Amino acid sequence: MNRIIDDQFLSIKKMIPQNVKILAVSKNQNTFYIEKLYKIGHRDFGENYIQEMVKKYKKLPKDIRWHMIGRIQSNKLKHIIPFIYLIHSVQNIKQIRIINKIASKYHKIIHCLLQIKICNEKNKSGITDQEASKILEDETYKKMKNVKIIGIMGIASFQEEKKIHNEFSYLHELYNKYKNKYGHYILSMGMSRDYNIAIKYGSTIVRLGTLIFGDRKKII
């Protein structure tokens, strides 16, 4: 099993463009398997839940780059601000204010992505282009010194391939607009089932869990 994880990861890494970062989604994965990827040089891991991320952070090497990709619990943000590398799932100005306030205590700048809703499925969260633009133009955000939005993230629907193409195409158009206007440089889209399509539409980070680790182990 250990060898399979290593081989699978290296095989994927060899196939995708060098400018696309692989984010290994380690939600519910045993730290042993995270360490296997760490030992072959991988450093970027994504978690959905703050409590699980904190437990893993305490156990694992401190040069791992932790990404928060799940729904944000504002009252728990204080636990990850000291070590978080990138927050993918920001959806409102309140969250940004909290991140900025906590980060200021640590004299850190926290990088974030805005999560855009690109499909109609109820279980997929995110904000509209209009809501994102309102955040980016917010005067209080512009004055913040400890938080910086550097791109956008989106999750495609679990539908036919044509629909996924349309959703990623739309997100890429928004990315280009924000890149030209705000200097954004990260487009986080694509998961195990659709990462090849996402790469065609300019994704700079693909979030791969099952494809690398197989089924979740539910042990940390």
Q: SSE layout and pairings?
A:
Layout: H1 2-15, E1 21-25, H2 31-39, E2 44-47, H3 50-59, E3 65-68, E4 86-90, H4 93-105, E5 110-116, H5 129-136, H6 139-143, E6 147-154, H7 161-182, E7 186-189, H8 195-200, E8 205-208, H9 210-213
Parallel strand pairs: 1-2, 1-8, 2-3, 3-4, 4-5, 5-6, 6-7
Q: How far apart are the first and last residues' alpha carbons, in Å?
A: 17 Å
**How large is the share of residues in beta strands?**
15-25%
- Total separate domains: 1
- Please provide the count of β strands: 8
Q: Strands across the major sheet, in which order?
A: 7-6-5-4-3-2-1-8
Based on secondary structure, the structural category is alpha/beta
Principal-axes geometry comes out as globular
What is the CA-based Rg, rounded? Answer: 17 Å
Largest pleated sheet: 8 strands, parallel
Number of helix segments? 9
Which spans have pLDDT < 50 for at least 5 consecutive residues?
Answer: none
Bin the helical content: 40-55%
CATH topology title: TIM Barrel
Order of helices and strands: HEHEHEEHEHHEHEHEH
Going by CATH, the architecture would be Alpha-Beta Barrel
Specify the CATH class: Alpha Beta
